[in-house]
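Let's inspect a concrete specimen:
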Amino acid sequence: MEVPTGRRERKKAATRQKIADAALRLFLEHGYDAVGIRDVAAEADVAVTTLFSHFPSKEALVFGQDEDFEQRLTRAVTDRAPHEPLVPALRREIQALVRHCTADSTAPIWRMIHASPALREYEESMRLRHAESLATAIAADPGLARTPTACRAIARFVIDAYSLAREAADPQAAVGEVFQMIEAAWAVTSGRGAVPDRSDR
């Protein structure tokens, strides 16, 4: 996560983190559905309006690093070294995100998410948004030269790799397995290794 540089930015980040920590503490202690927005605001010692200035919804409180994850994925494209291939850069970032999200301390959080239809729906919308942001970053790179459809497809594969690996018995092995398929799909979009079209035979 980027460290805010200015005093105002540091204060804002600290308030956001305090709210997220308070929300997660209450959700895990009492259950997601049993805790209201006002409960979280009181626990964090902030006004409800302050809470909503940092988090647009109750569901967003559970995914406090949503924006950071999205930025990390797009930066894996935009900030990679000159001439570095795209797929290895994305694989490295997904491996780091999977390590973060499969730590032992995250297990109760994922159980809570899986038990809540509202949180599962929010997570799905978040994943789609991340995929669109990643596709936009890929499409904007003049050195990659893929169609918009190819960019969106690869971006969705990458986001799915994160989800599949997170749920696997061996997350890092799963990342490697899925990215072998992503590498092959990416090669096909450039015309390398394409399967011949049999429709005209």
About this structure: Residues 139 and 145 are 7 Å apart (CA to CA). The longest helix spans residues 7-30. The chain has a mean pLDDT of 89. The two ends are 53 Å apart (CA to CA).
